[in-house]
Amino acid sequence: xxxxxxxxxxxxxxxxxxxxxxxxxxxxxxxxxxxxxxxxxxxxxxxxxxxxxxxxxxxxxxxxxxxxxxxxxxxxxxxxxxxxxxxxxxxxxxxxxxxxxxxxxxxxxxxxxxxxxxxxxxxxxxxxxxxxxxxxxxxxxxxxxxxxxxxxxxxxxxxxxxxxxxxxxxxxxxxxxxxxxxxxxxxxxxxxxxxxxxxxxxxxxxxxxxxxxxxxxxxxxxxxxxxxxxxxxxxxxxxxxxxxxxxxxxxxxxxxxxxxxxxxxxxxxxxxxxxxxxxxxxxxxxxxxxxxxxxxxxxxxxxxxxxxxxxxxxxxxxxxxxxxxxxxxxxxxxxxxxxxxxxxxxxxxxxxxxxxxxxxxxxxxxxxxxxxxxxxxxxxxxxxxxxxxxxxxxxxxxxxxxxxxxxxxxxxxxxxxxxxxxxxxxxxxxxxxxxxxxxxxxxxxxxxxxxxxxxxxxxxxxxxxxxxxxxxxxxxxxxxxxxxxxxxxxxxxxxxxxxxxxxxxxxxxxxxxxxxxxxxx
Length: 521
Hints:
The chain has 19 helices and nine strands.
């Protein structure tokens, strides 16, 4: 992207890329536009809704109540008022509000859902959602409230603002009435047509939209895990006679056809290229501990699950999860269960378990970096006993304990989240995915895992700096140590140290993933 230059995401009939959605959500400079293909499909879809309504056919949510009231008709003269009632009824979320990127991701995911033709909203309604994004309308969307059978409460918070109700954030971050947020953006409140209220709220746009943002972080973390591992390999080579690279060799990786594993091993070889570990050392240990030696298997399995989440998000983003589904080909409105994103929920579940395993290996490597730190402290204490001022160390001594606490958190977060939903709506809604809860737990796991890997990278970098430059570091590991050396030299507090390291490492990984995947290390 060119700095300062707005970008446009054009939504048409072709598939939308998950990465594009995440980028457009994260950057408020992005504008979105529905092309003529999308608008034409929306028009045909809406014609089917209007024809069905005029025919008198009973259709869920079009002319009936919802949930356990599915077989109770709504009188024609009440249909417009019913739209407002549906939005108000479902606007019941609680908890903290989503940030701007997450809020944009929800609106964008629902807009893309409209464009697939299954919702039956008018073209103008879809364009209104596009304008909310383009003009910076920031609905206040509560985080909690969805059980994963459509993210009803989150989407109702968006719909409430669209009709001039609810709340939104202004440019200063203060909560204002939804009507004022629209007026400030030069928009008039949307007047919903029959069937549109349900179409606005009945989708998984929170799980899908925020899931795309989580995916980008997961892809970064896959690279970060290999960076931290590579630094630790360099470190144990200097202090403990380890750092055997044979487990990362192409021959070992070719012996087992796991794409993620091969990618992880290749990343480590690339990070260490040009350094002294590439030369076979007669004194090197024949085998390092499994947290080093089998790391490609662990990191590779994690990478595989990240790819599976990418595929699940692609399905949900470009599919038609509406109920009832407006089927343009047959000209009918059909009740179904595509709003149940089970594949996506299970992808969120599996990734938390995978992150816990990545964390276990990471914490065990940190533990093996502790004896050299203890020796350094002993040396400093001995110098102080001789009359020198006690050296102030750049690395807080008990970061390993913080790492152990983070690992415990990762293990707790790995417990299943999707099995706990009770039955709702008079036992009609008797199974739910709890995909939003699984996603929220995944976001917490990401935070813990990022901190854990940052601690490993900091610890290894500190020890490599203490060891001096007798042996050349790899091209990639050298670049990381150089960045983290500046962070360590500032001697910030432990929380600030880890946060600064996370920022630096994220920046390095982003550079590595930039330029269409071209590897810079």
